[in-house]
Sequence to fold (211 residues):
Amino acid sequence: MRALLGVELPGYRPLDSDGGAQGEAWINDDGDVLSLHNFALPPDLPAGLDDGPALRTTLTHWTAQAGGGLIEASVKQLGGLPALRQILKVPLPRQPSGQVFIGSFTVPRRQCSTVVKIQAPERGMTGMREAVVMAEVGPDAYFRPHPYAPDVRGGLPFHVADHLRWDSKFPDHPLSRVRRTLDALTEAVTVDPRFAGLPPFTGPTVRDPRS
Fold:
């Protein structure tokens, strides 16, 4: 079952892949990769979508432990179903500098989930958005404790240059493109009624320690 319909946004073309049942992918002229993944397993989420504080705090720690930084996480509607919307950043692989910005919607059901993801890497000169914003707000106001988990350590730092307010000043920045793509998906995506009819996800399954 292809759970989400309408994912193929204008400006994206099919990206060569293995063509397996696990995912499909598209790419645009900026090199942003849009992909759709189906998982026939209980969702790997730390809390139910109705427990925002626990969900955001744990996701912040998980992302930092993996070397990245969670920029934002919230529960939104996608095709009429509740979905976890995330934006995070990770270092560019095998590069001395630069980042990849990743946005996603995870639509969980009790025994499976589907994820639509957009990945936008920095290219050419990196760090311009950060440098301009730091010069404007000053170094003392630039870095902030993470709003979801002030005690988090490691990973990429939380700072004001990643805020939505700067997207209009840097419309071609990969983070700005990620947010626009997530907004476009919100408007375009519909859900297969068979997927919508599956039992909802209410939280992670607690394993019986005697089993």
Q: What stands out?
A: The chain has one domain: 4-195.
